[in-house]
Amino acid sequence: MIDFKSLFRPGILATRPYSPGKPICEVRRELGLGDIIKLASNENPEGPLPEVLEAIAEAACDLNRYPDSSAFRLTEALAANLGVTPDELILGNGSNEVIDILIRALVSPGENVIFSQHSFIVYALTTAVHFECGRAVPLTADDRHDLPAMAAAIDANTKLVIVCNPNNPTGTYNTADEFTAFMKQVPPRVVVAVDEAYYEYVTAPDYPQVLSMRGEYPNLVSLRTFSKIHSLAGLRLGYAIGHAGLITELHKTREPFNVNSLSQAAAVACLQNPAAVADRARRNERERERLARNLEAIGFQVVPSQANFLLVRCGGCPDRMKSALLLTTSMLMKGVIVRPMHAFGLGEGALRISVGLPEENDRCVAALREILS
User: pLDDT tens for residues 52-92?
Assistant: First the structure.
């Protein structure tokens, strides 16, 4: 019998596969529940725009053909939308793939990548697989990236620093002044990737505009996605904007045909309706603040968020209900899916709740109130 574990690197053996939030169909099957709402994966509850669905249906007629590997039409449209040139863009099968491309292209054995200890879990998973190169820095006491500590962690072997802003799963952000001070400490040889998956939801006036900083800092890369506000999570499409010289080299590690034809057509349609995107951001802000107030009223500690989710802690709840895992299980029995944060290293009393439609948020609060009472 082959000992298959002996074939793999230590980083592979020590890595646990990514565990996503439970899909609605699985909860229905397990619990026999019919009416279920999912507030666990930071998805947009509104769904794709009608014109996006039309574009997908039209593109589906040509599924016997390979997609345009260069994504010419989408790249041109996206470049015009962002005010950049096409050679400053690289697309991926979700921003996850772009993160993987960066690490594979930049990091050799013995070199390292710096990120926050309590941030998007894919950073830790991907760096573990690639030569165990990750170095995690704790958040500050107010759940934000500790940028001075991250700058101090950079050494001669550091190739990449990842900053998630706004941060997942806390929803917090670092200001423009803080980020500028951080960039002044980063050597030009170190690439800084700012994961801005929730960029379109931000309303804070002092949020850093990374794209406008690239002229001064050519080692700066911005990562964005169509999964969130554009409602294309099921089609997986992310992208990076960076200096053309850097992006050209990254393309060498990109898989051919990595973005499927449905994703490309859908994204082009998304870019044609910026007013609808702005309306979605306003509705999210309104519901996010209302949900936060209601959660605080029943005893939760809510971390201020600039994204489409809230990190809440159970410190103000009755002692018997201070376990996020217990709360999550109790919520499942009521047909509401939320996400405990123990896998993110935030302790057993932390939950992440995505902002849903008004009626979904009301049902979530009502279920929590009933459980706590």
Answer: 999 999 999 999 999 999 999 999 999 999 999 999 999 99
Q: Which residues contact 206 (CB under 8 A, 6 or more apart)?
A: 175, 176, 177
Q: How far apart are CA 160 and CA 190, in angstroms?
A: 6
Question: Residue 340: beta bridge partners?
Answer: 351
Residue 350 forms beta bridges with which residues? 313
Question: Looking at per-residue confidence, does 107 or 373 come out higher?
Answer: 107
Position 5 scores a pLDDT of 78
What CA–CA distance (Å, rounded) separates 116 from 145? 6
Mean pLDDT (the chain, rounded): 92
- The predicted structure's pLDDT at residue 24: 66
Strand partners, 114: 135, 161
What distance in Å separates the CA atoms of residue 152 and residue 185, rounded to the nearest whole number?
Answer: 8
> pTM (2 decimals)?
0.92
Buried b or exposed e, range 180-196, using 16+ CB within 10 angstroms:
eebbeebeeebbbbbbb
Topology of domain 50-273 in CATH is: Aspartate Aminotransferase; domain 2 (3.40.640)
Query: How many whole angstroms separate alpha carbon 100 and alpha carbon 61?
Result: 31
Burial (CB count within 10 angstroms: exposed 0-12, middle 13-18, buried 19+), residue 235 = buried
- Strand ranges in 190-285 using DSSP code E only, listed in sequence order: 191-195, 220-225, 238-241
The CATH class, in words, for 4-47+275-372 is: alpha beta
Q: Are 243 and 90 in contact (CB under 8 A)?
A: no
Sign of the CA dihedral 284, 26, 99, 87?
Answer: negative
Position with higher pLDDT, 6 vs 37: 37
CATH 3.40.640.10 range(s) for the chain read 50-273
